Amino acid sequence: MKVIVCGAGRVGSTIARYLAEDGNDVVLIDTDEGLLTELTSTMEVRPVVGFASYPSVLEQANAQDADMLIAVTASDEVNMVTCQAANSLFKVPMKIARLRSNEYTNPKWRKFYTHDALPIDYVISPEVEIARSIRRNISLPGAFEVIPLAMDKVHLLGIHCDDICPMINTPLRQLTELFPDVNAVVAALVRDSKLIIADSNTRICAGDDVYVFVPSESVHRILTLFGRDQERAQNVLILGGNNVGLYLAQYLEKASHHMHVTLIEENAKRAEFLAETLSETTVIHGDFLSTGLLEEADIDIVETVIAVSSKDENNILASLMAKRYGVEQTVSVIEKPLYSQLVVNLGIDVIVDPKDIMVSSILQHVRRGKIYAAYSIRSGLCEVLEADVFETFEYAGKTLRDVRLPAGVIIGAIVRDGTPLALRGDTVIEKDDRLVLFADAESVKQVEKMFSVGLEFF
Known about the structure:
Elements: E1 2-6, H1 10-21, E2 25-30, H2 33-40, E3 46-49, H3 55-60, E4 68-71, H4 76-90, E5 94-98, H5 102-105, E6 122-124, H6 126-139, E7 145-149, E8 154-160, H7 172-178, E9 185-191, E10 194-197, E11 209-215, H8 219-225, E12 235-239, H9 243-255, E13 260-265, H10 268-277, E14 281-285, H11 291-296, E15 304-307, H12 312-324, E16 329-333, H13 337-342, E17 350-352, H14 354-363, E18 371-377, E19 382-388, E20 409-416, E21 419-420, E22 434-440, H15 444-450
Parallel strand pairs: 1-2, 1-4, 2-3, 4-5, 5-6, 12-13, 12-15, 13-14, 15-16, 16-17
Antiparallel strand pairs: 7-8, 8-11, 9-10, 9-11, 18-19, 19-22, 20-21, 20-22
Helix pairs in contact: 1-14, 6-9, 6-14
């Protein structure tokens, strides 16, 4: 597949690397020649220097031969015009644009993004996706990762196992014996930053991050078995009133009338706007790193603190301060990879990486064949993929014990007619089943090949 990626920032460079490593022909456009030189020294992409919206630059990128264009520059307007030019002048079949402004992402104007108006096939809003991700996490405070799969019939949970977790030092085969009625699959562990694909002999150790597939109705039971079932917060404090903070507050207002939400914003004009926009959220103007202001926000009774400002350092400090006040759950948006690695053991419960969320959003439309969706985990260390079983699929009609997957791949769930199946050795894979797979980075391409059906892609 021939793909043009417009914008070489964190998201653009990451998706370009993903696609190049998958064997795609990738062109990366950016105005920063130095950045392109640096990036192309470590990845197999062709650099083009210039404004992505310029027809001459798109022509230089061979847009006339491209299968897909992904516009993720820093400017919404450039992304929109780039998609228009790609469609009108070069007939690029699929166009994806990142749009940040709520003026453009408002559902009221969705009909604007059509082939006859502004031809963007998929609009991705980072702030909306981040807010949704945080909302999922705080709905299940015992997990640091919550991904709904297979039309919400299955969840992937990331669970941190401390030294009092009931499951540590027990081989996974014994867990199945002890809880035969629990339909869950431990897919992998991350130990000392290394991914371990689980098998029946794998033992969970203190300090491990465990990834578990579980039917949605059994989520709380699994969290209880891991000693992580916690009550949802009744008092939430959001630190930062950017669009992520705004969207999150709006989600929480709609989701629960029993939850009290407070938001602190430093900019006076923005705080005034938030107070006028949010009907049930208490908005406080000031610096959320001020202990006096935190106490004014009744942090002593807050169960969950969510730091979403644009400054990683402030989010980290605020989360650590909240822990000192006894807050049960802290969520921090952290963009810099180095910071994410350093703060793992500092006590922050959930680290939200905007890049991972954006890459996952884009992967939904990039993976090919019968792969329905894909999600990037831990900065591309692994992926979760949903795929439909087609008639000529290699393992259609076979039992799980007869399936021979690559070493880095595990089936986490099978959903048939909307119902998750118990995964046993004699479970038969049937046509039209939805498979949910967990794969390390090296094995993703092999999964794609397994579900390849000619030239179609999504």
